[in-house]
Design brief:
- The chain has a 5-stranded mixed beta sheet, sandwiched between helices. A 5-stranded mixed beta sheet has the order 11-10-12-9-13, with helices on both faces.
- The termini are far apart.
- Helix 4 packs across helix 12 and helix 5 packs parallel to helix 6.
- The longest helix has 17 residues.
- It is an alpha/beta fold.
- The chain folds into 3 domains: 63 residues, Winged helix-like DNA-binding domain superfamily/Winged helix DNA-binding domain (Arc Repressor Mutant, subunit A), CATH 1.10.10; 162 residues, Periplasmic binding protein-like II (D-Maltodextrin-Binding Protein, domain 2, 3-Layer(aba) Sandwich); 78 residues, Periplasmic binding protein-like II (D-Maltodextrin-Binding Protein, domain 2, 3-Layer(aba) Sandwich), CATH 3.40.190.
- It is globular.
- The protein is built from 16 helices and 15 strands.
Length: 331
């Protein structure tokens, strides 16, 4: 393994913690001069961020894990889901960095600590983090619907789900006498279903469409009506430093929300681009788009009603952190 690969591997493992440059020679088994040369090249190429800690000491991070915003740069986090064509296309248009996470808690935590600048994660999860941390601001609802229950048995007792997610919230709305088993990744949840550890799972697209080939699937919106899934939020520090960049991103996002499902060419392009990040076949992704409503505009008041009714939080705790009408044309 060459010197560059060794250093990048160490930085990837350290994530938001970063590493002192003085530690790298020992950790990578390299000379100080080689480390200094490689870091300077990586910094010039935009791979890493280097901050002075003391007069002679520097801490280094991979750009994607740096826990602070950078001027004219943004990192957007998504889940492994087909809900994000407009996010992906807007990020591509503005040369943003896209990071894919296994679950909503990890993604929303990354937004809160600043290792992503924007995040598309469940509204339910973002509202909870926003009310506690007061450092994220919600700007858009990404889409409605897009999840459901996969039934391994006719009569289910144990249901797999993810913690503090739209799936968990919807399962509780159904008021079934189910025992929940929590998983950190959709792949592990599916494996558990196939092994018989759980009788069914609550999961999102495009897993839902894929699993419908072998299991009975019931979409949540068929049982409880339309519901908001993910919302798009920004870290407050990023907002303060990159308002113009965020405004451009929101404009591009709104543009693509109107195109997906209605403009065939744009829909095909978006599915292919999203496929590069989440790893599913683009035709499966395109098919799963029909489970979502991408162009429904929700207001601050809509979200406040959701918060009071479904999350049982007082609107006063979340109202200052909602800006869903930002850059929307006035009627």
């Amino acid at each position: 393994m060459d010197a560059k690969s060794r250093i990048l591997g160490i930085l990837k493992q350290r994530k938001e913690e970063g590493v002192l440059q003085s530690e790298l020679p020992k950790l990578a088994n390299l000379s100080k001069s080689t480390v200094s040369e490689v870091i300077s090249t990586l910094e010039a190429d935009g791979w890493v961020v280097r901050n002075k800690v003391t007069k002679k000491s520097y801490r280094i991070w991979l750009l994607e894990h740096y826990p602070n915003p950078l001027k004219n740069t943004f990192r957007v986090g998504i889940l492994k889901a087909s809900e994000y064509p407009a996010i992906i296309m807007a990020a591509k248009k503005l040369n943003g960095i896209v990071k894919v996470f296994d679950n909503s808690l990890e993604l929303t935590r990354a937004l809160s600590i600043g290792s992503v600048d924007l995040a598309a994660s469940p509204l339910f999860t973002q509202v909870l983090f926003a009310s506690l941390m007061k450092n994220i601001v919600i700007f858009r609802i990404v889409a409605l619907n897009g999840s459901g229950v996969v039934m391994g048995k006719t009569h289910c007792k144990k249901i797999g789900t993810t913690e503090l997610s739209t799936m968990e919230l919807n399962l509780k709305k159904l008021n079934k006498n189910w025992d929940f088993v929590y998983f950190k990744s959709p792949e592990r949840m599916i494996e558990s279903l196939r092994d018989g550890e759980v009788d069914g799972i609550a999961i999102w697209e495009p897993y839902l469409t894929e699993l419908n080939k072998e299991y009975e699937v019931v979409k949540f919106n068929e049982l409880i009506g339309d519901f908001p899934c993910c919302s798009l939020a920004a870290n407050s520090k990023f907002l303060n430093q990159n308002r113009n960049l965020l405004s451009r991103f929101l404009q591009e996002f709104d543009f693509y929300c109107e195109k997906i499902g209605l403009d065939k060419n744009e829909t095909i392009k978006a599915a292919r681009e999203l496929s590069n990040y989440i790893g599913f076949n683009d035709k499966l992704i395109r098919k799963s788009f029909s489970s979502f409503v991408f162009n429904r505009i929700l207001t601050n008041e809509n979200v406040l009603e959701f918060v009071e009714k479904e999350v049982f939080l007082r609107r006063e705790s979340i109202q200052p952190l909602l800006r869903l009408e930002c850059l929307r044309p006035k009627s």
